[in-house]
Write a structure and sequence with these properties.
Helix Hairpins; mainly alpha
Length: 92
């Protein structure tokens, strides 16, 4: 019989994957560049959450390190894209 933790981890995985699918849809059909940047920002955040949930599920440290790398790269890329949308250039 499944424990409450296994059931909740399965539910969390389904919810994160559904959020990723909806973000990917917004990324593909977004009417403006701002919508696409926001969808990409949410998509990397969902990827980080997926790595964290898998780390809890399998009990391995490598997933938590991958989540940290995803967070760092995602933050820097979001700042770069926002700066590009505001000014039209990344490097001043």
């Amino acid at each position: 019989m499944a424990t409450l933790l296994e059931i909740s981890i399965g539910y969390a995985l389904v919810c994160v994957l559904a959020a990723m699918a909806l973000c990917a849809g917004r990324l593909l059909i977004g009417p403006s560049a701002h919508d696409r940047v926001l969808a990409l920002d949410t998509l990397w955040m969902c990827g980080m959450l997926l790595a964290l949930v898998l780390g809890i599920r399998f009990g391995t440290q490598i997933y938590f390190e991958a989540a940290m790398l995803i967070a760092l790269v995602g933050f820097v890329s979001t700042v770069a894209m926002a700066k590009f949308l505001m000014r039209g250039e990344i490097i001043e």
